[in-house]
Here is the input.
Amino acid sequence: MTEPRIPTIDLRPWRHGDPDTRARIARTVDEALQTAGFLLVSGHGVAPGLRARIRAAARGFFTLPAEVKQAYEARVGGRGWLGPGAEANGYAEGTETPPDLKESLTFATHEPFEDPVVNAEWYAPNVWPAEVPELRPLCEEYLGRMAGLEKELLSLLGYALGVEPDFFSRHMDHPTYGFNINWYPGAEVIGEARPGQFRIGPHTDFGTVTILDRQAGKGGLQVYTDPSEGGVGWEDAPYDPAALTINIGDLLARWTGDRWRSGRHRVLPPPADAPAEELMSLVYFGECTPGTLVESVPAPVGRVAHPPVDSHVYLRTKLDSITVG
Here is the structure.
């Protein structure tokens, strides 16, 4: 490998193709997730107009005065607004960086769970900004689309791993998916980046599957592949405005016994030659049902036998690790 292998997978032939076509797609997915841990997917059926309307509504919130936004302030992993300086994602991997140069609106599932302690931790009600009432129906429609797409992707991943198609999805009956709208304003809002400061610092995601709708920019997404393993280090991620970016997180990598790689990535600060650049990402984090025991698949599929972990104990530890202050 001389560069990250990040192919674009068209989901339409996966849905409707013959066995040979589906097997070829599965092999491509398996190969890609062994290297950078990223894919692009087209044919997903999520309308670009819906994504554009969410961005417009969210921007209406993010550009409100700080004192208005503070009424919706939440902790990392909660529901509401994460203001500037709330997170430093590099902390999760032990990379010391200044706080990330972003703001986020965070929402998640809120369907009741039978355990009141779990309910309080992972199924709290969403907090929808009253100032932008159009945001709620847009996000709820988008989250419905994401839930369906996640199930389809998990079935594809089970097939690609050579296990049962429901190997992952059967643990998602009552998932704690999360949804971040990340706003990356220009330098006129955040000031000049400090040395080693990013819009999002280098990290891997923590859970199962991340579905990202992003915008292209000079201060945009980069992915990492290890030069000692034939990779190239940091490189701009491929971009297709019609495609969604998919990466797997730490829990799913553990599940595969490190056959697949949790995709390491970062988001660059506003570039010196375009300091006013503003970007916004829609980030859906797929997660398991609380209490899921994640155990590595054995060899020859798996390569490392990690100790079993409770999915949500693991997630809370990781979320706490990136909290600033």
